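Sequence design from tokenized structure. All designs in this work follow the same two-part layout: the structure record, then the generated sequence. An example of the structure record is given first.
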């Protein structure tokens, strides 16, 4: 089965079977000492990652960089399109064709849904979707699952409440599909205008899950095993006045946490912009910084598998 990873594009979580995701998580577990700098590796020595970020990023870009570097590989690319020939009008297809010739694997973040699929069409080397518009963020999903698995062991039957911007949030699009595959119970909490799109609901339904929907977090938080919080993404709203109507709808603070399960965990793909109060960071519920670190071993596993250095 693992031989199937070599040369594979990582565009959507739908590209993976449950067995393949389990394998990525198992390999990622073995990468932890290298990710922490406790062990050295030259597994990807001689390999180059093309890192093409057309949108801002802290965690995804830097964790791909450190994952490649700690495995002995190199990274080249850009962190904003203004520094590349895109600023002169070069198309995504041409940019990808060029970087494909310089690198062994490409991580691409782009504001348009479907950009990674288009890039995969033009590249011979593996394309890893590092977030495409309001589409998908499959490597984020892998690290989210890695975090949940570490905290909760079994994902079957756990109650995951996903709250915030479910319409534009690519992390929840990928994650809800994967969680449904693993048998988790899902509750989607958002204002009606930001509820989960029909396409994701259909996908979740097709896996035999019947998600709940609500606009009140207070109504459902007491039953949550995992509270997955997301930022309302100002940059995705075509009309800024629509953003103003929903900004600040949800805030996780100590008051909200009074009635939650003792072992409930709070996750967030980050960045946060006020939806989790800083005092929550000191509670045992807060797992979002560990979650962000988990991006390193998980991206090591993905890079190693698609480049064929790991089995
Ligand atoms: N989680 C995530 O994608 O964060 P960045 O935008 O900082 O990469």
């Amino acid at each position: 089965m693992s031989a199937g990873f070599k040369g594979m594009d990582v565009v959507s979580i739908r590209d993976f079977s449950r067995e393949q995701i389990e394998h990525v998580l198992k390999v990622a577990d073995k990468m932890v000492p290298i990710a922490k700098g406790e062990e050295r590796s030259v597994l990807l020595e001689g390999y180059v990652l093309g890192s093409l970020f057309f949108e801002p990023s802290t965690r995804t870009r830097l964790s791909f960089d450190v994952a490649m570097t700690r495995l002995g590989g190199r990274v080249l690319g850009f962190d904003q399109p203004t520094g590349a020939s895109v600023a002169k009008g070069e198309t995504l297809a041409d940019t990808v064709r060029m970087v494909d010739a310089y690198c062994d694997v490409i991580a691409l973040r782009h504001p348009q849904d479907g950009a990674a699929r288009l890039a995969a069409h033009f590249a011979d080397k593996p394309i890893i979707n590092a977030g495409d518009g309001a589409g998908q963020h499959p490597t984020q999903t892998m690290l989210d699952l890695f975090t949940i698995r570490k905290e909760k062991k079994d994902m079957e039957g756990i109650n995951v409440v996903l709250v915030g911007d479910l319409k534009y949030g690519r992390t929840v699009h990928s994650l809800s599909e994967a969680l449904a595959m693993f048998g988790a119970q899902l509750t989607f909490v958002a204002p009606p205008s930001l509820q989960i799109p029909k396409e994701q609901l259909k996908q979740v339904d097709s896996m035999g899950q019947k998600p709940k929907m609500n606009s009140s977090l207070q109504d459902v938080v007491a039953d949550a095993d995992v509270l997955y919080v997301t930022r309302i993404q100002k940059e995705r709203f075509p009309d800024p006045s629509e953003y103003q109507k929903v900004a600040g709808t949800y805030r996780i603070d100590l008051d909200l946490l009074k009635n939650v399960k003792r072992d409930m965990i709070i996750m967030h793909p980050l960045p946060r912009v006020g939806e989790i109060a800083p005092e929550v960071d000191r509670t045992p519920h807060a797992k979002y910084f560990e979650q962000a670190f988990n991006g390193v071993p998980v991206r090591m596993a993905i890079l190693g598998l698609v480049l064929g250095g790991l089995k």
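The chain is about 35% helix and 15% strand. We note this feature because it recurs in several other targets discussed in the main text.
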